Amino acid sequence: MIDPSVPLPKYLQLRALLLDTISRLPMDALIPSERELCRRFNVSRTTVRQAVDQLVVEERLRRVPGKGMVVARPPNRFQSFADDMHALGMSASCVDLGTQTIEADADLADLLGTAPGAPVHVLHRLRLADGQPMAVERSYIPAALAPDLFERRRPGGSLFKALEREFGIVTDTGDQTIEAGPATDNEAEPLDIPQGGTVFHLRRRTFSRGACAELTFSTYRADRYRIHLGLKP
Amino acid sequence: MIDPSVPLPKYLQLRALLLDTISRLPMDALIPSERELCRRFNVSRTTVRQAVDQLVVEERLRRVPGKGMVVARPPNRFQSFADDMHALGMSASCVDLGTQTIEADADLADLLGTAPGAPVHVLHRLRLADGQPMAVERSYIPAALAPDLFERRRPGGSLFKALEREFGIVTDTGDQTIEAGPATDNEAEPLDIPQGGTVFHLRRRTFSRGACAELTFSTYRADRYRIHLGLKP
DNA sequence: AAGTGGTCTAGACCACTTT
DNA sequence: AAGTGGTCTAGACCACTTC
After folding, report:
1. Whole-angstrom Cα distance, residue B31 to residue B28?
2. Which residues form the HTH gntR-type domain (chains A, B) (predicted)?
3. What is the pLDDT, as a whole number, of residue A233?
4. B53 and B147: one domain?
């Protein structure tokens, strides 16, 4: 199970094994005790605690003194559109408006951190909440990270889930800029709002292990949408 | 220095001592080595590492293998308006438009987590960037937390700094909602924009040890302002 | 009473940087 | 060569929960 000869430290090997176990378990499930893990993997308790500590920081496990360790809710993944709408009590749906694969120009390459001219997948979508238009989105994904994305992706499904399940890309950080202003005619039409109506312009990048995995420009109807953020120092 | 009889664990006592040291040191300063701290405070290396580990997670310290431990940049405090503007390359200033102390109505009490009728300080400010109006803000602070806030606060100075320095209130979490829409006449006038110009409406709450310390409604000119966010899962 | 996580000790060897 | 952080061991006692 744990190979002392492998260059990866024992506690990280153990963490990976625990993560695999956790992912198959329901929330609040009790996992084996620290001392039991020591016996089972033949490592010291310090090593077990080092592995567990990290999972606790990552909010995958909770310690319960006197009881044991239980599986915690998955950490806040980046808000998918569907989750976002459900939190507001609305149903979410999505219409694909088109896909293509282009070569990155200088600006796009700069934002994605790829070489200029590198192939990039583009996904154009209309987001609906309770059946009414809420946003239009244009997503860019470096083709090197997900070569046959459009063949493997379930149309209308979550882009994040496809990246994670089909290509093993788990996003870990991101950045976002938010602007507001009047909609252009091109934007107003699919959103079903008057020309010049107020919209949010969002630009979001999400990163996986230091590389930009996804760049999305969204235009949200400001009359229907409100952004909620939790802040941590 | 470290008292084994006190109920607080040694590693937390040590963490507090280190935090005090760190706060007086410039960024990238080298602090004593782990083994030196063991000798100096007469604790085991495990205990030292436990204290340091926490400060590393909190981004107050960085470890440099082979070198030592250095003071890291202070963690992202909540963006003060001044910091926000400086990041955009603009100078920031502030004009106090008035202060008063009121009794919380039901809505305000709900948002602040105080009892209805509890006294609340209100601070009304105009924010300027490069000398031009950028935002108007209305801040509410439970008077119980900062009784003589208006006597002790430096006019035009940072509210957060005053709460921290004068009342020991350090904010640890927060939430924020962002809307966009046309400005009302009341808002447009001090911001020096046309009636109906696009503005951001921000509502931010910051918490200190579980209690709301501050509630601020801001109206930002959308033609000059852009929101930047770092995202973590 | 037995088991759990929480804290703590006193060592050890490694890869790395500095001198 | 000396010092540093990174990893690891094999114990220990405590407060707590469960039986």
Report:
1. 9
2. 8-74
3. 57
4. no
